[in-house]
Write the structure tokens for this entry.
Amino acid sequence: MPSLSLAQINPTVGDLSANCDKIVAFARDAAARGADLVVFPELCVCGYPPLDLLESPRFIDAVEAALADLALRLPPDVGVIVGAPIRNPNPIGKRLFNAALLFEGGRVAAEVRKRLLPTYDVFDEYRYFEPGATSTALSFRGLRIGLHVCEDMWNNEEQADHHLYEANPIDLLAAEHIDVFVNISASPFAVGKHERRNKIVSEICREHGIPFVLVNTVGANTEIIFDGDSRVHAADGSLIVCAPSFEEHLLFWDSGDTATRCSMPHRDVVDLHDALVLGIRDYFEKTGAFDKALVGLSGGIDSAVTCALAVTALGADRVTGITMPSRYSSPGSVDDSAALAANLGIEFHNIPVGPAVDSFASMLSDVFANTEPGVAEENIQSRTRGLTLMAVSNKFRYLLLTTGNKSEMSVGYATLYGDMNGGLAVLSDVYKTDIYTLAGYINERDGANVIPRSTIDKPPSAELRPGQLDSDSLPDYDTLDRILRLYIEGHREYDDIVRMTGFDAELVIRILDLVDQNEYKRRQAAPGLRVSTKAFGMGRRVPIVMNWQRADAIQRLETRT
Amino acid sequence: MPSLSLAQINPTVGDLSANCDKIVAFARDAAARGADLVVFPELCVCGYPPLDLLESPRFIDAVEAALADLALRLPPDVGVIVGAPIRNPNPIGKRLFNAALLFEGGRVAAEVRKRLLPTYDVFDEYRYFEPGATSTALSFRGLRIGLHVCEDMWNNEEQADHHLYEANPIDLLAAEHIDVFVNISASPFAVGKHERRNKIVSEICREHGIPFVLVNTVGANTEIIFDGDSRVHAADGSLIVCAPSFEEHLLFWDSGDTATRCSMPHRDVVDLHDALVLGIRDYFEKTGAFDKALVGLSGGIDSAVTCALAVTALGADRVTGITMPSRYSSPGSVDDSAALAANLGIEFHNIPVGPAVDSFASMLSDVFANTEPGVAEENIQSRTRGLTLMAVSNKFRYLLLTTGNKSEMSVGYATLYGDMNGGLAVLSDVYKTDIYTLAGYINERDGANVIPRSTIDKPPSAELRPGQLDSDSLPDYDTLDRILRLYIEGHREYDDIVRMTGFDAELVIRILDLVDQNEYKRRQAAPGLRVSTKAFGMGRRVPIVMNWQRADAIQRLETRT
């Protein structure tokens, strides 16, 4: 029986030449190690998501040229499956297909078109691609393969309460008397995704009594993180082999082999940690635009966790921390920041922002005459810090990492052009309560209190006025995060949330309205690493100018029924 | 023959209750004035684009309740066509249809589902909607109507070099022996759209010998501006009646009447002006979050035009201008700003930013020791201005309008968290060369040099270092804008642009690479008013982290051929 190799690679969007070099190198390595068929991920030639690059005819010309080169450069004595956009020869419909191509003997021996095109959340595939119309098996050296692309495997009865698609490629391929399913994917990470994949793949295997090979891409491209997590399941659903998550890997499987020898338990907090580290590293490395990363250290837990993740991603010598106390900062804000920087072994500066804050106060004294200090003044403090960090970023080519968490970003507890400044928002998809878990894991992992105890223990505060605490303006984070999770990831409206939690209806309405009203801030936020099933950014498209009167409308609905 | 009324209304996204009140008021008015059938625009019940509000089942419940109320409240003796999202009863496919509903006698008498779902540029309809499967005529008091929704009329051979869709609803409806086409639209404005509509509608009329009623929505929702431009064409394609653009209007047409009596020539600069005014006004009024608009005045043409547009949109008493000179500002920057403010009759402040700039210089002196002044210092100036404007915005609930133009935003000639600050980018879809035309029209329109001559005549400069001119870093704007138009609106790659313009290939590559590399800035830009066929923002989705090596790839292509 042919021996398969699963090439879990990390392509860069648009970099056809580097991606093809990588494909050739992995294919040669796999061939040298005995593989008959080497399988690469979805759209690995152009990287995922290529977005509107796909609308450029010249970009597609270049993809075609890259594929022609691949045919010549790939080892001719093995089969190689790659994912790439190809032109739709029909003059009607979208101009491209999302295809899996089998190279063999210096030519494309087979082509499979993706049928189910995800067009929801972060996915816009129907913007670019025409759906494929058929599902047929292909034969490779006596092996009948049910080759398909990513979403084609997700139209499964057990998983969905509603079928998005008419076609079920899995059932159609199973009916073709295949020996194995082969799925090439660009399937993004979210906490818990490993278990979801286990469940759906093993169900497919058991239902049809057919083994399953899944090759997923790895790496981060701007906000989307791919975990890899490639694997082979036996016909009974059990895991035969699996690749480590969050790194490139070449995995081998002899297609006659059914001995289960993979046990890779996943812990949510470890996956979350490793995803964020990869997200930082790939943003930094793939842009190639920066010499170091920069984090503003407040003494609080968000900036401490961000900084620790950056050090793991880039090394201590490529991370700089700056603390910027004002008159409202607690002594702990400087001490805890200094302790963190010392623990991590990073460059550290202390730049008090008082002089700039005072300058603005005097510059604005006429215009602000006879007004009470309030949010405007608090924001000035936050913005002098943001400006200071950007000055250092611009001067030394440092990537400023934003530290805001998902709880704050949800309700707008953040200052535009202040603490929201930065090129990448590391924690903007992580709720505050989960950041404590992450901090605990970081200290556990490094075997020491890298993140100072006092940082973890202090009550959260923006420290923008005397004695300020987050709990002055917001419910406690356990309450807030529970409401937010039900609204954002759970897609529940306020009445359901009240029923499910027993929380006060006015509180729930206020929080949901705050989320909606602060869309204008998030629209200008740095791209954030997506680690949940519903992150802010490209996957959550909410109007800024709108007036959805949820309380009125829903109360009226309840009166009707 | 029944008399029709075209109700060109301005709904607010999500505000079901206000939108339905407006529909009822217009329908009653039309009925009182003799209409038999009143036609409203696409999705007028929920506003366009509702985006992910459509994913909330409770929002759809509320739409259903609003439609049930409409049935009771609409005048029972006339027919009323409205656009609304309705549930897909089939458990397979997207959960909604984008529908046109005919109300008559207190109930929904007919329902038409949109078939062609635009999923390109700013449109994401396949994210939410299942395409309708059929095109059939409906009868209303002896009139056979070919009712359809927006995109269903745009699959026309003369217009497209490539057919996006299999179905052609126009041909199918024409075959149903109809007396009139009725199209309900949410068709956005772009400069020249009026003429494009004239062309496509009159071609349809002539091809089939059938008159055409088009009812388009009006108003701006965040970045998208709808111009209205509703009209009736005779069977020979000539315009019978047409509504004024950029305002609500109730238009009447007796379906037996073929007398051409509409002549509404459109001038591009006037449309552009009126679109921007509407965009500012609707953002301001529909959010309801602001007391005034605020513009930072540099003495340059962009801020002057932005400010003049704001005064036309909101009135002089709701606009404030602030000039913020630094040591590198020319004397003209303050004098021209003061003259503009006086001409417009607005509140005006002069807040020199020197003290804040000096504070940052001293705060950063240790960290910046032994470095040369450069972009970091220039950005500090821009950011102290941005911070000052935001302080005033926060203190007094002023909407800060950003003044950057499309040429600058394209190549990143703008400072994040500095001059890019603001809630709405008024000119970010207008090239610099067009801003001069706009300034000329504003002065022509107001019969006086509202925008000072010296503002129009001075060479463009950011004034961030001594003697700085835009032309130090960029080609002249005629050259730059020509390249940008071909790349952004024209979707041309550098080799085509070089062939078409004769410009130096290195220059063209440098400009196109600058556009791509500055996506990270635009991702954090304020939403901008869309007035072209390709604006930055939601309609142009480009990866931040990518490495498309256009020069290498395209040169390699040319070697091949």
